[in-house]
Amino acid sequence: MTIKDDAELDVTELKQLLERVRETIHQAPNRVRHSMNSFVIAVGSYVKALTDRAIQTAEEIGVVNVNMGNTSCKVPDAAEYIRKVQKRGTINKKRKTVKC
């Protein structure tokens, strides 16, 4: 979704996955919660048609708690993060390559 054009994406499947995240994120294991939160941010930031739905999902989810051990790492607030991308004007700005 970060490099593919929106026309190439299965938007229906992404909507279903957002719904699944909304329903299950707080019962999921630590790393899965973190990945789910990142997924919501990615959908909201890279798929223009789903930005509003991703923000709504993030607001319904609320705060995502992940035990990161004794580090200073924090889980970003997905709704706030997506709004920041919106304000910057870079919603749907695709990347040229993927870095692993």
Short note summarizing the structure:
The protein is 53% helix and 0% strand.
Arithmetic mean of pLDDT: 93
Strand content: under 5%
Strands, total number: 0
Query: For the terminal residues, how far apart are their CA atoms?
Result: 15 Å
Number of domains: 1
User: Helix/strand-derived class?
Assistant: mainly alpha
Explain what you see:
It is globular, with a radius of gyration of 13 Å. α3 packs antiparallel against α4. It has 100 residues and is mainly alpha-helical. It has four helices and no strands. Helix content is 53%, strand content 0%. It has one domain.
Topology, please?
Elements: H1 11-24, H2 30-46, H3 51-61, H4 78-88
List keywords for this structure.
100 residues; mainly alpha
